[in-house]
Amino acid sequence: MSGVTREQQRATDAYARVTAVPSDLRPDYKPRVHGLGASVLRDGLAAALTFLERERDPKETNAAMLLLEDLAKVLGKARLPGLSSTLTGETLPGAVRKLGLEEYMLATRETLRLVVWFRRAVQATFKEAPRA
């Protein structure tokens, strides 16, 4: 037994992923993180992930791709029923769409808990641009 709670693990994982975001993607990453929780509550997890999936650019890494990848890695570590521990940003939306009702609800709750920590990490680590 490691003595680390699930909340502590979520916080650690979120901060690790957010601090690794390249500085050129941070201005676009921040609003995506802040809007993700509301999008999940309003539209559902599958629709919120599909929205991010639609904005991926195969030619270059963008904030939507990076956020999907970050969520996939952290959700994979959560060992949720129906989701593989080897999830990637490309496989996460499809895997969520294939979940049964109970697994989908569990994945939704876990994602909402993760989004809280992603938001906190973004607020704590991304520097605000100076106002003119």
Total DSSP E strands: 0
Biggest sheet features: none
Spell out the helices and strands N to C. HHHHHH
Distance between the termini: 52 Å
* Average residue-wise pLDDT: 91
What is the structural class?
Answer: mainly alpha
> Strand-residue fraction?
under 5%
- Helix count equals 6
Query: Which consecutive residue ranges, at least 5 long each, have pLDDT under 50?
Result: none
Shape: globular
Helix amount? 55-70%
Radius of gyration: 14 Å
Describe this structure in words.
The protein is an all-alpha fold. The protein contains six helices and no strands. The chain has helices at 6-19, 26-43, 45-54, 63-77, 92-97, 101-125. α1 crosses α6 (101-125) and α2 (26-43) packs antiparallel against α3 (45-54). The chain is globular, with a radius of gyration of 14 Å. The model has no long low-confidence stretch (mean pLDDT 91).
SSE diagram, text form:
Blueprint: H1 6-19, H2 26-43, H3 45-54, H4 63-77, H5 92-97, H6 101-125
